[in-house]
Task: structure prediction
Amino acid sequence: ISIVTTVLQKHQNKTSVNTALPTSELWERVQQDQWWQIDNDAIKREAYRNGSFTKLLEKRRGAKPQEAWTRQVYSLPEARKPLVQLVVRLLATLEMVCKDPDANVVVRMNNRDDFKAAIQLLEHVILPSYCNIHVEGNLFDDYDQVEPYPSWSHWDN
Result:
């Protein structure tokens, strides 16, 4: 069970309703969860031990299918950081713009706190869990300055 599922279940049990949880609240709760902190520390140690993500690609070239897709987390190479920054910005923008009426988690339109939280959830939860990538340090220097695509001025109009 992922940390997001755990936090959502606690939220729904507490409120006894199926209301969507804004990403800013979800990120706050994830950071406070002691189990996530333990898992996050373990991911960091594993990524440090495994080294760069490029090692995974080299390892997969000659491996059998079962060996090629073992679940290990690797560090994001600095050269790939701009690409991952763009992908994360685009995904967070899509989450903000496209609304799912059945969603449990929502990035509210033009809500900068939700957008920033969506970026951090993608970086700290989705990338390690589903993409086998850990970002050393932070993906962005200042999360308050990260803009959707196109920029906030487009969405504010």
The first strand starts at residue 21 and ends at 22.
